[in-house]
Automatic annotation (TrEMBL):
Pathway: Amino-sugar metabolism; N-acetylneuraminate degradation; D-fructose 6-phosphate from N-acetylneuraminate: step 3/5. This is Putative N-acetylmannosamine-6-phosphate 2-epimerase. The lineage of its organism: Bacteria, Bacillati, Actinomycetota, Actinomycetes, Micrococcales. It is an enzyme of class 5 (isomerase). Gene3D superfamilies: Aldolase class I. Pfam families: NanE. One of its GO terms (biological process) is carbohydrate metabolic process. It comes from the Bacteria. Belongs to the NanE family. InterPro entries: Aldolase_TIM, NanE, RibuloseP-bd_barrel. GO terms for molecular function: N-acylglucosamine-6-phosphate 2-epimerase activity. Its EC number is 5.1.3.9. Keywords: Carbohydrate metabolism, Isomerase. Converts N-acetylmannosamine-6-phosphate (ManNAc-6-P) to N-acetylglucosamine-6-phosphate (GlcNAc-6-P).
């Protein structure tokens, strides 16, 4: 098990790759997720982010890097590891870091973000990444005890417009606020130049998912380019 300092040292200035597939897709299989995770680690990814308990377990066996795990579930606005029981299960599945909804929206189990994070820290060895959508979310998640702040939900929680690329303005706002937790840039990072701009805006690590691990979307970009040429 990694210590918090070890994970921070590994992630700082590095690339985290999100390996996820949507339900019903050909790649939606824990074995495939683990193979993709091992492939991106071979390419230099410092850590991987995966969704689902079986995927987390399979990935833990496939890589020796930190695993950020989450569980998308439910029909409410809060779907990324929405309750404490989801978070606890993600930790038990082997995630070194549990990613959860870090917005100020009502959680389905009625617990506050502080209560959720406190219990997770007390009952497991896992760290917590709060997926936020605004500066106020980041401030609240910091006060709640989050170990990492991600901009995953920028443009999806209703507080900020959805930018075409990464929300660099939000990253700059959070960095200038000097909140304390490691700042991880995530969301709509579609190219190496996007990743570089995220780090330049103040992120200490960057998460890239679709542009690396989602063939259907990547293929559609090329198809669109061919059709409009």
């Amino acid at each position: 098990m990694f210590t918090k300092q070890e994970i921070c040292d590994v992630l700082r200035g590095s690339l985290i790759v999100s390996a996820q597939a949507y339900p019903g897709e050909p790649m939606r299989d824990p074995r495939t997720t683990a193979q993709v995770a091992a492939s991106v680690v071979a390419g230099g990814a410092a850590a991987v982010r995966v969704q689902g308990l079986s995927d987390i377990q399979a990935t833990r066996s496939a890589v020796e890097t930190p695993v950020i795990g989450l569980w998308k579930d439910g029909a409410s606005e809060v779907v990324i590891t929405p309750t404490y029981q989801h978070a606890y299960a993600v930790a038990l599945a082997g995630a070194h870091v549990v990613a959860l909804d870090g917005t100020r929206r009502q959680r389905p189990d009625g617990l506050t973000l502080t209560e959720t994070i406190d219990r997770l820290h007390e009952e497991t060895n896992a760290l917590v990444m709060a997926d936020c959508g605004s500066l106020d979310d980041a401030r609240s998640a910091t006060e709640a005890g989050a170990d990492f702040i991600g901009t995953t939900l920028a443009g999806y929680s209703g507080e900020r417009p959805k930018t075409t690329g990464p929300d660099l303005e939000l990253l700059q706002q959070i960095r200038e606020a000097e909140l304390g937790p490691m700042l991880v840039g995530e969301g709509r990072i579609h190219s190496p130049s996007d990743a570089a701009s995220v780090l330049a805006a103040g992120a200490e690590a960057v998460v890239v998912g679709t542009a690396i691990t989602h063939p259907a979307t990547i293929t559609s970009w090329f198809v669109d380019a061919c059709e409009t040429s």
